[in-house]
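Before relying on records like the one below, remember that each one covers exactly one chain. Contacts with other chains, cofactors or solvent are not represented anywhere in the record.
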Amino acid sequence: MRVALALGTVLLLAACSHSGAQTAAKNAAPGSDQTRAIGDSVASFDPKQIGKSDVDRVADIHRREVFASLRVLAEKLYRRNPREWKKGGHAGVEIALDRLLDPRTGWRLPAAAGRRGTDAMSLALREDFGGDRVAVFVAGVGDMLNVAFDEKTEFFMLDELDPQKLYNSARNLEVAAWKLANARDAGGALLLLSNDMTQQPANLSFEREFGKMIGNLDLLAALIADKGHRTIARVAQSLATAVFLPVAGLR
């Protein structure tokens, strides 16, 4: 009953806002600044925004920033490791990125052999893996984040994110960043090139993108936990011996 009442209120407010803006536009003098201003507001009005709380809008922003950083990370990895996108037979980096980040794939890649999330991330950094390491690693990260955000791209008042999933995903990104920077083959060569410590100043752009994602996830997890009076189970572990925390199995 409360859900129906809330939805009815949202629709009523949307209709009233739209009707009020149209009435004001009719009463304004043609060609006046008021008419143009009201016309712009009517054109840009999105009724969906009324169905969002402040936390929902913040969640939208954080999710958008997290996945924007993931795209930047994917491009940087491909440019530092061109042999990887060539494994897929792509004609260039942009084509490889479009294929990898195509939402229709659902972060499922044939090269991952059915592995998803943190399992795919681990597979990409195994010495005996012969596929596109960048694609499988990024797809694993993307799938884990997608699950943390309940596989939604936008949030409304009736949605409820789990702060523990967001927190665990942030810790997993810390582990993933460490593994990426340290995974080597039998000869001691890095499996994937990322940060470059040999140049001056050092290139830490990969670390910065991981840091942005971790910061966004931690901040959103804390905000949602505070809103719902929930407690996050915090974990302290050494990155060198750390294991990935569960995300998909949490409720």
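The radius of gyration is 23 Å.
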